[in-house]
Amino acid sequence: SCVGLRNLLQGLSFSVKYYSKHNHLQTICLYSKTQQKKCHILDCSGSTCTHKTLPTGSILPWRLFSCKEGTKIPSKRKQNTSIITSELLYKNLLKSEQENWNDISARYKAMTERIKEKLEELHNKYTFNSVSPRIRFGENVYFEENGCIFLSKADDVDEGNVDVLFSTKDLGFSDAFIQRIRISPDQRYMAISLKSENSEEATCVIMKLDHSPVIEKVIPSVFSFEWATNDVLYYTSQKNLKCQNVFMTTFTDQKHTKLVYTEQDARFFVDIYCTKDRRFLTINSNSKTTSEVWLIDCRHPFKLPALVQARTKGVIYHIEHRNDELYILTTYGELAEYKLMKAPVASSGMENWQLVYALEKKTKLVDLEMFSDHCVMFLKNAGHLYLNVISFVSHLVQSIELPTWACEFELESHPEHTTSTCYFQLTSPVHPPKCFAYSFKENNLIEQAVQEVPIITNCHTTRLLAKSKDETLVPITVFHSMNSKELHRKPLLVHVYGAYGIDLNMSFKEEKLMLIEEGWILAYCHVRGGGELGLSWHKDGCQYNKLKGLHDLKACIMLLHQLGFSQPKYTALAAASAGGVLAGALCNTDPELIRAMVLQAPFVDVLNTMMKTHLPLTIEEQEEWGNPLADEKCMKYIKSYCPYQNIKPQCYPSVFITAYENDQRIPLTGVLRYVQKLRKAALDHASRIRKKGNWIPSIILDIQANGSHCDSSWEDSLNE
């Protein structure tokens, strides 16, 4: 939650350097057939813990990438020979691909040096004066830069009068980056999560902030954590991409750590959140369709957590607190989009929920911030961003339109609860973040002039609607230089994702601006399965609706060409992770629409992955893709669009794939199989059709030794 959604996928890269405190808002409502199980609450109010069986709890923060294939460990006795053989084949194949990549990449040395120089120039131009996320505690300000955490007085922060509290390099964590920071209420302790680029799991370091800060404790494999009091910390542990246990650890004279909560349903993922007024910690357990929340009273941190509302199939809810009332963001009710409701803390059951505000249909709730007297909703509708400001005093709702060029919000990491101003930034793939503020007192939007960021004035933004196969209108956002002429001759880069209710990442990236300056057209296709038009947009593109996303993508590309934005021989398609499903499917069904495809850590073998329930995320993701093991109809449906299953001899576009050796979500074996099968199909087609000018596509695989599922530093992203 350190940087809100600013770095949701920075560099995409998908640079998830900071945990997004509100990524759990992107879960979706869908019917689930899985039987509820039981969870265990441990009463830690006394000197010992006692188990109590209760209805399961559940809240899952949104993961940005799909679960992918791993390797099942066979029996040692029966399969030793096959293990050795397959490992040897794997190593030989890996070595062959690396040699092939070294040979191919050498041909592009001059081009890559030119591109690298240009990107560094743009990076320095647009980020040299960017402000790091700051945490304010009264007169003190905490912030992170270059692997160090600093403390300054609010009046001195821009004068350079700072104290260094923590340095990854000096304390032996040089290979890690700072992911999350939490300061205890009395500012005596600071908890930090550190994550390396080669691992999904983070380490939590607790510092005692005396005159000379020292490490008090190190906790491995931590996902989220919050201070309940000055010396009581709650945290969740992570193992094999799952997060199902909540612990409490104390820093009093009698230090101890206790298990507080266990989630036993494999579909659910647990995290910890602190309400803005610091009254409650919430234990949130979410599947992709259902939520459950337990409250920990920060005034009594050793008491048993209290259930807000038992999980109800298809109902997602999240909790904030104000004046002894719970404010509940939920999908409960007739229209399965988000609504803001409220209920007394003492009687928080669903029967007592009262409507405060309901979103309009096809409106995406990007984020929500609670202040002492106001609530700010950050919204998206048909590609346009706006704010809804709800006053808890006057009970009025004010809607604020934002500049038309804006495509993404970047929120303040820790806004002060009692402030009279809400600060945020607006950005787009080709516009660097620009600071804005909304004044509750003046009821107006203020454009900040603090940062002298050069304004991009020569880029034109166009919003289109493509008619899909079933007549549904699909939004497209297009960027191109105003100086470009004969757009039908310009190269076009199309972006797609379309899964998990997650929007296409449209934050600023230097490489996108560079492409615009070099005459490219950029198009972002907001197909079904994503979240751009609210929860229903995702529901209309998952499970048995996956083909709708493919039809949407085809319609978008065809419309772009019909309107004169490039043509097939100058068109490339880019996708990452689960976006590889639709991109790879289009490559099979309509290869003539594109000349090249660029995939990053792509999910290309849906069927085999979803057939293997021993993989860490397969059961959880049945709500997105279906369960082919239990349903033959589902198996046939997945097989009908799965990229790997539908490769056939035909004229394919050229393909460039980046994969990661340490990727736990998409292990290399599946990507290697896809590449081998695709190459064979392309060569089979070329050998059958021997004619002059017959084109054989380049199918290139770049295997990165560092990085983990699109998670990379600026330096690695630059090299890539």
TrEMBL record:
Enzyme Commission numbers on file: 3.4.21.-
Key words, A-Z: Cytoplasm, Hydrolase, Protease, Serine protease
Biological processes per GO annotation: proteolysis
UniProt xrefs under Pfam families: Peptidase_S9 (PF00326), Peptidase_S9_N (PF02897)
Peptidase S9A N-terminal domain residues: 94-444
Annotated compartments: Cytoplasm, Cytosol
Domain Peptidase S9 prolyl oligopeptidase catalytic stretches: 507-685
GO cellular component: cytoskeleton; cytosol; Golgi apparatus
Main location: cytoplasm
InterPro entries: AB_hydrolase_fold, Pept_S9A_N, Peptidase_S9_cat, Peptidase_S9A, Serine_Peptidase_S9A
Gene3D superfamilies: alpha/beta hydrolase, Prolyl oligopeptidase, N-terminal domain
GO terms assigned for molecular function: serine-type endopeptidase activity
Bilayer-crossing regions: none
Top-level EC class: hydrolase
Function: Serine peptidase whose precise substrate specificity remains unclear. Does not cleave peptides after a arginine or lysine residue. Regulates trans-Golgi network morphology and sorting by regulating the membrane binding of the AP-1 complex. May play a role in the regulation of synaptic vesicle exocytosis.
Family the UniProt entry places it in: Belongs to the peptidase S9A family.
Protein name stated in the entry: Prolyl endopeptidase
Organism: Haliaeetus albicilla
Lineage, broadest ranks: Eukaryota, Metazoa, Chordata, Craniata, Vertebrata
Name of the gene this protein is made from: Prepl
